[in-house]
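Supplementary material to the annual report.
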Amino acid sequence: MSQVISVILAAGKGTRMKSKMPKVLHRVCGEPMLAHVVRAAAEAGVDQNFIVIGHEAEMVKEAMGQSVEYVLQLEQLGTGHAVMQAEPLLQDFKGSIIVLCGDTPLITPETISKIIQNHLNSGYAGTVLTAEMDDPTGYGRVIRDKAGQVMEIVEHKDASPDQLAIMEVNTGVYCFSGPKLFSGLKEVTPSNAQGEYYLTDVLAILKQKGEKVGAVKVGDPLETMGINNRVQLAEAESILRKKILDKLMLDGVTIIDPLNTYIGPEVTIGFDSVIHPGTIIEGRCRLGEACEVGPYTRLKDTELGKGVTVQNSIVLESLIGDKCTIGPFAYIRPGTILKEAVKVGDFVEIKKSIVGNGSKVPHLSYIGDSEIGEKVNIGAGTITCNYDGLKKSKTIIDDGAFIGSNSNLVAPVSVGKDSVIGAGSTVTRDIPEGSLCVERSKQEIYNDWVARKKKKK
Ligand code: UD1
Ligand code: CA
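Predicted assembly:
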């Protein structure tokens, strides 16, 4: 395939969202709408994405990062004007340009590929993606001649009553020969009902220059649905969510209640895994085979190995090895690595720590900035005191150690291999291998104390 780049229009404000955030950053299935469009383009084989930004441009840049190119449109003078802003960057570009809108999160790579292929095979100067709409109100109408050839696109506000009766509309997606697009744009004028530079006029201009232009119909018009308000945002969310979940189910993942399960588009899950209701899996999560996740669990940017169980818990930016069990009610914070068959039980918080094979943190603990070896048992209520008010320090617990319940480990501190800490100890000095550490005052017993007290009264 010759080189294809995209120009994605995203400079508009999106007034009807009633938001301080630019429209294209509102999220669908956990990702900005614009990110869905960029991903679809990339998956369709588009070499580079140029995003036209204007309204809250800095916010868009921050959200989308360095993987795309930016074109600034200072004033929003129309879709044609928006694309024109990319010309200085694309002067020497001889390939094809696909134009997309940043507010159509449901567009698929298949549709983008289809219009590109069609465009390349036909040799047309410009190809527009069209849709048959039951209600075409607001869209540009596709005007064809008697032979069915595309003549021009007329905006709703500029259309005659006859033209308004046409049900075939412009979806706002096009593929152009790069040099022909920019030469056509030079002749676009804002002489229309809205006083804007219409990108759509380029088709008629190319036609007048003796070029051929054509159209491809989209399979499912929902794909090109533009999001203008938060009702449509929720509609897009439920359509995309169903698509993601259907694919996972067809790939061998059991989802008990798809109406109550939320999984992002970049998540992968191995077969024979079961996802219980109320579960949110977002960002770049990878789950292995035969995992059991939920109910009421949130995973973000996390990897689970095979056969991992997580219930009623939150796991963020962490690596969880095969056969680990987490929860109920655990909170695993960023930077945590659980090796194989680690048990993290109820009301346990773990932050930025490594826990070795077969170790257990079964109840009511805080483990922060720690390195825990293999087959360690952490008793209920153990706290690593990792923060002295100024800096964070590390706790190191070697293989086979047994930490008695309700111990405080005041970091920096280390616990040697196979050593034992008596319950209730506050440990401030390193413990050598194989030793017992007990730090608590001696227990006193006062015999018959209760009876004596009663007698006094
Ligand atoms: C446009 C098409 C219309 C089509 C419809 C499909 C034109 C003239 N009309 O109309 O034929 O049926 O899309 O949704 O192109 N944008 C900019 N800079 C601007 C203006 C717009 O970046 O100066 C961006 C917007 O942020 C938006 C996209 O371009 O993402 C479309 O703009 P919009 O004003 O919504 O175009 P429509 O009037 O819907
Ligand atoms: Ca629109």
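The chain is about 20% helix and 30% strand.
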